[in-house]
Structure of Alpha-glucosidase:
Amino acid sequence: MDIHHWWRDAVIYQVYVRSFLDSTGDGIGDLAGVRAGLPYLKKLGVDGIWLSPFYPSPQHDHGYDVADYRGVDPVFGDLAEFDRLVASARRLGVRVLLDIVPNHCSIEHPWFREALASRPDSPAARARFHFADGRGPDGSEPPNNWHAMFGGPAWTRVTEADGRPGQWYLHMFTPEQPDWNWRNPEVAAEFDRTLRFWLDRGVDGFRIDVAAGLFKHPGLPDSPDPEADARTRDSVNPLAWNQPEVHDVWRHWRAVCEEYTERDGRERLLVGEVSVPTAREHALYVRPDELHQAFFFDLLSAPWNADAFRKVIAEAMQDIAGTGSTVTWVLNNHDQVRTVTRYGEPATEGSGLGAARARAAALMMLALPGAAYIYQGEELGLPEVVDLPDDVLTDPIFRRTGSRARIRDGCRVPLPWSGQASPFGFTSGAEGAKPWLPQPEWFAEHSTDRALADTRSFWHLYRDGLQLRAALPQLGEGALRWLDTPPGVLAFARGGEGDDFVCAVNFGTAPTPAPVTGTPLLSSGPCPTGVLPGSTAAWWIGDGATP
């Protein structure tokens, strides 16, 4: 069977459902809103969408605390609405990926409620999770010294049915998110049923949350450096992360997906959220019989520096592309400060240094070999909302760190669709309806209607870049060849020798002679022939792109 490996150079748009578009007027985005927005995404030119969790959940971590993996929370709709969404996307040629959360569930999950109700000396229900006796007098201290990634200890003690303090359970994020024990075969079987449930409903694959974290060291020993674990949101505890047994899970899930592909020739995708120290370790997750792809976060975290970007790209091309997979590039997602702000943009503006760098980075990412993921609102040039009042913040990290870490709410503020007053077309409710997070007044300048009307906007830059990416045979997953450049400039050619496509990025603030000849095809800023203005990127095509 001739299989089209669509995912290898796909561009996927991340839909954070509760902040995309509200169809009911309750101030929370929903699946019907996503369906209504599909023509907008089709016009933008993406190949597919990744939906954040919409499953039944008490929403302690906005759906990443799942109470039922095979349902839809009423705030987002129902299964019938989900089916309509998938059918509409299929008609438009837009693929649909779901966010699946296999590392942990909700304290409201039936199996965890069963575990809490069970006796410690009847361990079958508790064996699906990590329950353990405490240390110290009367077991009053946690079983080990692990820290949760969202702050505080990674263990919570339960109160037994007779009212006495009892065992402790492990949660590497919040106490409302107990970790599954993947050494228990019941857990693996349950997720197998979940995969098949959604594949049978027509989804095109899954984004896998915390894909490196499923297995913990079997003895649950103390961390060698608990102080370091407590300082960072990105776990450095090698005993709770990146254990070798996790690769068997991905081999099985890959086999399940290929079973469906063999039925109809439509390839399903597994893309993992993999946070590991090096590109070489990252490559282990995308071997031919494991995940198709895994997010490569090093580009996101690289400082704005030509040498740093070149090093990150070169290592990814060497270690990851060498597995037979393709690199999965990201500049942002629902856990990060928005790109414009991260690169230096004041929160209430959209035309300064941060915006110029974000436009340049977008064109560079779309010119690289492999796949790319775009977080909603990046195509509008949205800055981070940094001045949200404390009393509206909902991120559990803020609560777990004693109100010190303001990390994720600012990038999750609902999208502005209209340039009118708040709620900027996000909600269809009556006048005065309020989105679940407040939108600043300056959001009007970044609304979709204004962006579509302005050919100089971020939106048109992304749309034009996506169209060229689809049209030019040099792009996609082909080769990359570095070009010699002056300091502060990065340039690469795509395709074989005699390429007529080059991406050049000036990381400095002063204009510099372009390192190639030819005519600018697409630029992130004003780009006269032969010159790269400061902090800009240009796509070039012409007479061979001769260095």
